[in-house]
Batch of 2 targets.
Target 1
Amino acid sequence: MVRPVTPTVRVADGTDVRTVAWLRRQWAEEQAGGTVADAGFDAAMASWWEREHDQRVTWLAEVDGRAAGMLNMLVFTRMPKPRTASSDWPPQWGYVANVYVERPLRDAGIGRALLEAVTAYADEQGFARLVLAPSERSVPFYTRAGFGPATGLLVREGR
Ligand SMILES: CC(C)(COP(=O)(O)OP(=O)(O)OC[C@H]1O[C@@H](n2cnc3c(N)ncnc32)[C@H](O)[C@@H]1OP(=O)(O)O)[C@@H](O)C(=O)NCCC(=O)NCCS
């Protein structure tokens, strides 16, 4: 690990869309190995946010007042079912995605701070579970935060 930093982690709101878009672009350009000239991207991000924000929570990690990373969670609200007063049936679970820390700031605990924010939120809200699809490299990162292999899910890949 490089020198640990203590980021500020906060929930993003509508005024942060450009910052979230900027981080998303950094990530895409890192993957592409250079500039990605997508003139419609910022508008696509703005309309995606408008459409999606009611059912998502996005966290931003900031270091010295500047965005350093993000995490996004889709809140899945289960279909209600009739139940007795005593039955324990958490009505929500979360799908964690878009976990990203700027490359020069990695391995300093910023990602861990983002995961602490989402797991604390899920626990406070009584979520049934959090689910995610890790890259191979990030498996230890998620395992340290309490995630384990999913044994009860099936997946059908797109054709
Ligand atoms: C995954 C990621 C958010 C972790 O952020 P971070 O601030 O470096 O996290 P921390 O400092 O708390 O933890 C470091 C751990 O992250 C993981 N990690 C480091 N570099 C990584 C990379 N390029 N890709 C995926 N995971 C990585 C490792 O598990 C590392 O610990 P380890 O070397 O002991 O195994 C960050 O590496 C990243 O943005 N990677 C690129 C995007 C990505 O892969 N996102 C996750 C997709 S499921």
Note: The mean pLDDT is 95.
Target 2
Amino acid sequence: MPATTPLAKGKPNYGWDAPGIMLGLLGIGSLLVTAGVTLAVAKLFPFSQPVGVVLTIAGTAPLTLGVAMLQYGLLGKLRTRDAILDLVTWRGDEVVLDIGTGAGMLMIGAAKRLKASGHAVGIDVWSPKDLSDNSADVTRRNIALEGVTNQTEVRTDDATGLSFPDATFDVILSLLCLHNIEPKSNQTVACNEIARVLKPGGRVVIGDYVPTHSYAQALREAGLDVKRSSAAFGTAGALMWLLVADKPIAK
Ligand SMILES: C[S@@+](CC[C@H](N)C(=O)[O-])C[C@H]1O[C@@H](n2cnc3c(N)ncnc32)[C@H](O)[C@@H]1O
């Protein structure tokens, strides 16, 4: 049985990923498609119809991406969380790290699969552009609402310089975090940090909307055994790649 504490009242809010980009895509896409269809149908001036068709086509790409992000926030986010958690064979006593935990969705999901002997830590730098309403207080509220206070810990920490000793975690998870790290060379630094704090025999699962192959290469060079780095669009209903890698046990 998962070791949970009594539920507080209310529903957890795991936030909207990249809210500015999503609203921008929806706004520009809707504007272009509406203007394009209006010009094509109403034939307001001599070249109104071809101009309308071009505007409609130009608006379709941002609108589709915006709708995919909206769908991800409403449905795909929780499906992706469950798919990531299912890629770990849980004993229940793991020490888990969620890198870029945001509102705590993966950390809390992991905590619900743990027994009293397990523990999940979520770290973040709380960037407001990467997630709506992004703060440690929101994460702590979600933890209380989900009844996992005793199994979780929230820390402010940077993926490129983790404040944990070597070989601390049995499982490391991260969703839609690493692509935010700039410059890109620092994503390799973050992968090296993941390899450092993962215990021998431990597993890392990373989800991101960009291909995870560069993370795979960095983890391989850091000595991990990469089991998977492939698309999972069906799960997310949006752009999503998943990576699974294990840290070999030294002989
Ligand atoms: C798109 S949000 C995803 C949040 C959460 N993983 C989820 O899926 O709901 C990306 C998160 O990564 C965090 N982040 C960005 N750069 C980071 C860094 N260098 N170290 C730790 N967290 C970082 C952001 O603050 C943000 O909370």
Note: The mean pLDDT is 95.
